[in-house]
Amino acid sequence: MSETFRPFWLQQALAAEQRDPANQGNAPTPLQGDLDVDICIVGGGYTGLWTAIMVRQARPDWRIAVIERDLCGAGASGRNGGCMLTWSTKFLSLAQLFGAAEAARLVQASEQAVTQIADFCRAHAIDAEVRTAGAVYAASNDAQVGAIDSVLQALQKQGINRWRSVDAAECESLAGSARMRHGVFTDAAGSVQPARLVRGLRRVALAMGVAVHEKTSMLELRQSARPQVQTGAGCITATQIVLATNADMARQFPQFARDVVLVSSDMVITEPRPDLVAAIGLDRGQAVCDLRTFVHYWRSTPDGRLMLGKGGNEIAFGNRMLRRFDQPSRYRSPLQQALQTFFPALAEVPIAASWTGASDRSATGFPFFGRLSKHANIFYGFGYSGNGVVQSYLGGSILSSLLLGADNAWTRSVLTRGPLASFPPEPVRWCGAMLVRDAIRRKERCEDAGTAPHAIDRYLSRFARMASKADEAEKVDAGKQGV
């Protein structure tokens, strides 16, 4: 990852830190020398910091160290869209993988996490611009109408549906765009300044006595009885280790090479125009998504900017961390065009910045956790699949429970049994992914234009949801047996 490029959110968060006297003395401190600790966490993003904080709250006597190769927030935690979305719209997939009862628990836990994150920020004076104003999912063309109906019916059957249909006028008001229709709204969602959240978690962890060493890379992991992390200027010996490097995991540990694929998500953000943002109804901070496969998503900021993003652009061969994952977006022009299409009133507002980032898409679409090579004291968690702002709080709950040796719903969950599905090996994976991606793009362009997609593109697009089903079924059965 480049050390010179800083995405918009992180630039903003670091500038705020420099102005805040409370952050004096919290400069990056690379590890110098050796450490002996109870817990070493590799990765200073959401997952690593939530885990450190939750363990520290339960065991204030434990020595905990977090290492981060760059700055906390330089990875996905500081460059995502800041949409606080839950697993509710994933209920059918969750039920297929884990059963209806566990799926319902995970949905409700993700909805509760929205409030828990907001409450934590208030309790610890983290100015992360959290706004729990809900979320809107709606169709942006006729082909998307009804795409979410079956999952809402299933939620209703389980008695856990927090979504409601909105009429055309309310849909336009909530989504901020006349192109959005047949929408549904939930109060269990919102938005956050993602880098301010992760930098705030870093500050709280430091205040709690967690040692946070930025600019400190793991060069080697020694899987001894008391495992060790070798860095450039020291060695950390720990009773337990957590690996929370997310998109880097498949590169660092080849056994995960087929379990995730790195896909970019790209974003643009406007200059502030609070008057225009308020006029179209987006000033409350609600998150909005359309219902295509490669969704458009957007939300406002408290100072009146509008952020719009889209996933499914760059796909890395062999899970290489491409240089363009850490640069201004190559898709700035189509993103700007999409923003102008959805929001004609903002067509003349300048774009302040664009950026991109790698999303670790798992074959199931959900994160997975476990013990590295069945080592009793080395844990990992990643694979959030572009839906991790809220879910990483759950990841912290899972990993902290494992570290504490708890016997609870988190440690008993199938989520802790490692990857449940795999992609094909390279080069089949990359070639297939590119073929399907391009078919989806053509199909969705036709749908936006109101024309019929080619039959071949409709057929290929199905593979975005059909991938790895045979392997998935085999691994889920094994996971349920505890293998």
TrEMBL record:
Keyword Oxidoreductase in annotation? yes
Alphabetized, the UniProt keywords read: Oxidoreductase
Quote any Pfam family the record assigns: DAO
Does this entry carry the keyword Flavoprotein?
A: no
Task: Show where the FAD dependent oxidoreductase domain sits.
Answer: 38-401
Which domain of life does the UniProt lineage start with? Bacteria
Q: What is the designated name of this protein?
A: FAD-dependent oxidoreductase
